[in-house]
Amino acid sequence: MLAIEGTVPPRSKDTTDLKITFSQADISLPGPNLDDPVVISIKTGELLVRKFLLDPGSSADVLFYSTFQKMKISEKAMQPSSEELVGFSGERVPIKGYIWLKMTMGDTPLSRTIDVQYLIVDCPSPYNIILGRPALNIFRAVVSTLHLCVKFQAQERKIAIVH
Known about the structure:
Strand order of the largest sheet: 1-2-8-3-7-6
CATH architecture: Beta Barrel
Helix content: under 10%
CATH superfamily: Acid Proteases
CATH class: Mainly Beta
Distance between the termini: 29 Å
Order of helices and strands: EEEHEEEEEHEEE
Structural class: mainly beta
C-alpha cells in the first residue's frame, strides 16, 4: 500500500488480524552473521527434516530428490512432470515430479500443519528442502534474516517463533 508523505494509511477494519513484529529480544545468538540464511528443522510427512531453507525470494517449494529418497516415500506417490524450474540466472533444472506432504512448523502447542505441494528436482544442494513464497504465504509467515527466525500464526491465534 502506498501512502502520501505525512498521511497515515487507512487501517484494516478487520481487527482479527494479528500483528507480527520483531525486536532485539528475538535475536537468539549474540552478534549473528547478517549474511546467514534462515535454516530450520520442520516436520514433513512423518520425519523431522533438517536444513530447511526459508526463502521468500523463491516462487516454488522444492524438495530435492536425494531427500525424497531418504524419506523412503514410494516413487508411485510422485506425480510426474515434464516442466522445468528456472533459476535466478536463467539456469533450468528439470522437475522430476511433485508431491503433496503435510508439513508442521513449530512445536505443540505453538505449531501449525498445512499440506504443501513440493516440486521434486534432482540437483545438488546444501539444503534438503526450500520453502518458498507459496507455503510461507499459506502459513502467513514472516521471515527475518536479521533475527534468523520466522514468526507465524499458530493455533488459538498465538504467534509462534522458530529460530
